[in-house]
Structures are given as C-alpha cells and as structure tokens.
Write a structure and sequence with these properties.
It is built from 14 helices and nine strands. By secondary structure, the protein is α+β, with helices and mostly antiparallel strands. It folds into two domains: about 130 residues, no CATH class; about 190 residues, no CATH class. A five-stranded antiparallel sheet has the order 6-3-5-4-7, with helices on both faces. The protein is globular. The two termini are about 30 Å apart. The relative contact order is 0.16. Bound molecules: zinc ion.
Amino acid sequence: MQNSLQNSELKDREDVAESRVSFGASSASALFYALNHNKIRDEELWGLGNRIRVCSERENHWIGDELHNTETGELYAGNGNLWSCGSKLCPSCVAKASIRSRKELKLSLKNQKLLTGEMYQFITLTIPNPNLSLIQTRTVIDKAWTLFRKRDYFKQKVRGGSKSEEFTLTENGYHYHYHLLCVTRFLNFTEFRREWTECIQAAFKEFYLSLFLQACIADNFAYLKIAFANPILPYEIKTEDGLAMVKVKRLSSSANGLKGAIQEVCKYVTKSDSWEKLPQKDLIEIASIKRFWRMFEIFGSFRAQRNANVVLESPNVFITHLLTKLIVEVLKYIQTGERITILDTKQISDGECSSEVEDLPDKVPKRRREMGWRKYILENGLESYFEKLAEQVEKTRYARKCFLSLKYKYAMFSTLDGVSFSFEEL
Ligand SMILES: [Zn+2]
C-alpha cells in the first residue's frame, strides 16, 4: 500500500514536471515567433527567449522519490528545475515563486489572531476591461489599489492581508483582477464597492490625463486647446448600479477553511498557455520589462509578523521566541490598542508536518554576485552570451544535483530525460 501510494505521488510529480516543460517550451517559441514576425533584433529579448528555452529543457527538470522532511522525517516525492531562468514568462520559475509566496502567506496566517468582530475574507477586486495593453491595464488597477489602500475606509476595515494579481485575456480585452486574503471587520458590500469604484475612477482619470499630456508634449502642445475644451470624463462602469464588480467571501478561520484561499491567492500567475494567446505586441512589451512588478505582496498586520520573524535571529530559540513575541505584541498594541501578553505556554516549535510535496529544499547558495545577463549581452554580444550561458547552466545543474543528493542522501533522483543521480553516483 505504502509503495503504491508513493508511486502515484511520484507519477503526479512527473506529470507536473512534464507540463512545465511543455508550457515553458511553448512560451519560448511564442516569444521567438513574435520576435521573428516583427523583425525585432533586440539581443536582450533573444537572450531572454533562450533562457526560458534552456530552463524548459528536459535535462533541467528533476523528479525525486523518498525525499524526507528535515523536521519530521516524513517522506515525499518532489520535483523542480536545476537551473532557473527567473523569468516571469517561464512557468517553472513562476511556479517556484508561487510556492515561496504560499510559504510566506502560511507563516503570516499562523501568526494572526482574530480580534472581536474580525473575520477572514477572500476578496476579488476587478476593474472594467479598459481596452488597453496589458501593461497599461495593470498600471490603472495598481493605481486604483494604491489609492484604495490609503483610504481611511480601508484602514478602518482591513487590518492586514495578502494581495496577488491575475489576468485573463477575453474578447473585450484584459480582465485584470486582484485577489485579497485579509482580516477585516464587517464590510457593507455596497459601501465597499463604492469606495473601490471611486478609486478606479480616479485611477482612470489620472491615466488618461497622463496619456493626453504625453500626446500634447509630443505634438508640441498643439492640442492643448482641445484639452481645455474636452475635460476627461469619469470612466463609465457598465453595471446596473454603476459600481465596479467585487466578490467578497467569508472564510472559516480553521486551517482547512483557509487552505483553499491560500491556493487561490498563490496559484500560478497566469495559465501558461496564455502567452501564446497574447497579442504579439503585448508579449514583446512584457518581455521587455527589465524589473517585473511583484505579483504577490503582504500588507498590514500580515507584514508586521513577517518583519518580526525575519529581524530576530538568536542562537537561543527561547530568547528568539520571547523577543519575537514582544515585538509582535508591541506592533499589535500600536495598531489596535490590544493589551500586551508576552508570556504564553504555546509550544515554541510546533513541529508541524509539512506534507506538501512541493516543499522544496533551499536554494544553492550563490558565491558572489556576477554581472547580470542583460548587462553581459549589452557589453559582449549575444553569441558570447550563449557560450557563457551554456557553461553556467552546466555548472549550476551539477551543483544543484550535488546539493540535492547531499541533502537527501536516501532519495532517488532522475532528470526528465531519464538520467538518474543520487548521493552514491555523484
Ligand atoms: Zn525558468
């Protein structure tokens, strides 16, 4: 029974790895196709496409059986990539980022305590599809979100939470939305929507004003006259009551109740086939972003906990615990006025078993910071970069194999191209 269970788990891991390989390869070819078709010679973009392609090679993906949880000893099957390109267009690297986000969110949630009248809610904020490019659409929703968060209404109602971004491409343009998992007080649905709608209106207004000003500057202010004659009107929201659509769902505060919401907040940012569906100009625009925006963030009380946990590192675990508690309680007192209770009898380490198979080992530590790949291409050209990339990938793959085999001495590993590796072999 034990065996067949583990085999099915391993099979699942293999399926996940296979789908990442095929999605990654199609992301790379969608980008290559768009570059070719539009006769774009930008070496950086070709470099990026190649990085995604290499990241999606079969020999770059491992699956392993009988890895053990270092705390509990529990065995599990796992998978991952050996070298990471780190691109937001790469399904493997995006999946890695969402595992990291999930861990971060779980940690934040573990430290939350609901106060009287508070609850966990899963909220989806949407904006009407504005018929703009993906990056422009995102600019508008992000502006609306920044305005929303600064509102007194938001501060009074939402104590903390996490936010992640998602978009789908529809016939009427991009449908961009934010998912929030937060601790809130009672929310009046209409009131909440009205506040959010006002922020959307302000964001659209600002966005179109800046577009208009750019056009004016480009035309040497020839159109300024027209600007005065045509004030920018509020963006029309075509719902029955003129308010933007928002979904609010109350969650049970049990671990199980929150589990689904955690998955939802930290799932893949997009379905990987969406890159192929994207208009070529948008794909190229996204590929050209040098520093991609953060698709996941935590705020308010969720953040306070994390900072306290990160700041404190003491060799004595009990002192760390007490200091962490102290900081957390002080922060809570500042935010909510709740009484300080520092000493409690809760276990320091809850020894919780992490049965999640994607709970992968830590990164291989980097020795020193090398020149970024974009800069390297700029200075040395694409051809030289391809040689360097091949060498770097080979080294990293080997180092990662050693790292995995050393950490999990009794596990059995293989890459998707069928080559096995283990502690004894390396
Ligand atoms: Zn990658």
